[in-house]
Design goal:
Largest sheet: 2 strands, antiparallel
Number of strands: 2
Radius of gyration: 20 Å
Helix content: over 70%
Strand content: under 5%
CATH architecture of the largest domain: Orthogonal Bundle
Shape: globular
């Protein structure tokens, strides 16, 4: 089995190759932002998931590289467009693409990235290829559905935690689930194993997004790569906010809703006030407990995959790495 570090190195080499190829393309104003977005780093978690899942069933993980590239390029496309919609000026401690170039260029470059992602999958010509394309297309559509729900929730005051969990499953978790299953399909793994990996990824993905919500409020700014409190400023209906509204007395609930409804405010003051409410209501610990619930479910599903325990060691290590991240 390859280690996570070895897979990360392999992915980095492949991405560098793609960046070099993309930079040769014309027009520059279309392709340079794509190359830039891919140079912004990150842990490359999703392509690692693809190759790791493939490696569970095959020593030849190179066969999963096109699927891994499809996932990574598509993921970065979603980040590019997310930053435009959220007006987020920073991504991974660098200027977001629309801020470095301009909004129109970023929109078009993002569109091109989504098309390039599909091109990687077209490199497959075995029977499982159609299943891979179908899964990828369904996942792409679900990610868009999740993003729209996320935006709809910004102007909706009565979002339930159940609705929120469904939204993050679509917006975030399905792409992790897809990553694992694409790797299994590339390796021609048994169908049941691929389906278990998908469900493993769904639960891990929900835990991952809940962790992201938590970090947005409580992370170290220097490590996080984005402005702390961005979700609070944007009135994002995160698990933390919804749980705070659920637990609040009438006075505290009014205070939260007042901040949400204000059109003009001092950002630092709003972040500090909402953060203090979270602390008083023990929302941080409650969120951590919810994260652990989904993580433990993922581990239980992993145990059901019909492979020797030692074969799944790197898979468990990856899950632990995701849960132990501080940025």
């Amino acid at each position: 089995m390859y280690t996570i570090n070895e897979i990360q190195s392999l992915i980095s080499i492949e991405i560098e190759k793609e960046i070099a190829l993309i930079n040769r393309n014309e027009p520059k104003n279309l392709y340079a932002p794509i190359a830039y977005s891919l140079t912004m780093g990150g842990k490359r978690v999703r392509p690692v998931m693809v190759l790791l899942a493939c490696n569970l069933f095959s020593k030849n993980i190179e066969q999963a590289i096109p699927a891994a590239m499809a996932i990574e390029v598509f993921h970065n496309f979603t980040l590019l467009h997310d930053d435009i919609m959220d007006q987020a000026e920073m991504r991974r401690n660098s200027q977001s693409v629309y801020k470095k170039y301009n909004q129109n260029i970023a929109i078009l470059s993002g569109d091109a990235m989504s098309i390039l992602a599909y091109n990687y999958l077209l490199k497959y010509n075995f029977p499982e290829a159609s299943e891979m394309m179908k899964l990828f297309s369904q996942t792409a559509l679900e990610v868009c559905e999740g993003q729209q729900l996320d935006m709809d929730f910004e102007n909706k005051m009565d979002v339930s935690i159940t609705e929120y969990l469904n939204m993050i499953q679509l917006k975030t978790a399905v792409l992790l689930a897809c990553s694992f299953k694409l790797g299994a399909l590339a390796a021609k793994a048994p169908e049941e194993s691929g389906n278990l990996l998908y469900t493993f990824g769904l639960n891990l993905g929900i835990a991952f997004q809940l962790q992201d919500d938590l970090l947005d409020v409580f992370a170290d700014q220097s490590k996080f790569g984005k402005k702390i409190g961005g979700d609070i400023v944007a009135n994002k209906k995160t698990f933390l906010l919804l749980k705070a509204l659920e637990l609040s007395d009438d006075q505290t609930k009014f205070q939260i809703q007042d901040w949400i409804l204000r059109s003009e405010f001092d950002e630092k003051e709003k972040i500090n006030e909402i953060k203090n409410i979270y602390k008083n209501l023990n929302v941080k610990t409650i969120t951590e407990d919810c994260i652990n619930k989904y993580y433990q479910t993922a581990i239980q599903i992993c145990d059901q995959i019909d492979l020797p325990g030692e074969t799944k060691t790197e898979l468990i290590d990856l899950a632990q790495m995701i849960m132990n991240r501080d940025h």
